[in-house]
């Protein structure tokens, strides 16, 4: 809980500053890329998580990342420096997640995940997205996930709401009904 409240403060501040200059989506994309880089690289993750690294060592790594990125938004670069300065770099993944949620809420978007037994065709995915947009009255950004255990059908989670039309769930409901009889 402490992680989320700390991350929320930094994410809100970052959102307010980027919204003024209308660079919220660009910063969100760059922030997501940075977090993915930390997740993919054990060495970078070690710098982020290991208390054996000093603040100056973390600052050097962050400055190197900023230079390597080249076109990193100055607001984001300064946020990274501030996180290092205050020994809060460990919260970067949480800051990115909360920032994305706040930016989506401000833009009237909601993210969702569609899970199916097999990959869905692009037109089917688009039709599902439009249907979910009508249900939620918000712009829906869908991520597709394949889970062969579903057997068939789809399950879509948008925000905190789950729309489950999977064959596995339907079979489970039939099993419960038959047991009750």
From TrEMBL:
One Gene Ontology cellular component: proton-transporting ATP synthase complex
Localization, UniProt: Cell membrane; Membrane
Alphabetic keyword roster: ATP synthesis, Cell membrane, CF(1), Hydrogen ion transport, Ion transport, Membrane, Transport
Keyword Ion transport: yes
Record membrane topology: Peripheral membrane protein
Recorded family membership: Belongs to the ATPase delta chain family.
The protein's name: ATP synthase subunit delta
The organism of origin for this protein: Stigmatella erecta
Upper lineage: Bacteria, Pseudomonadati, Myxococcota, Myxococcia, Myxococcales
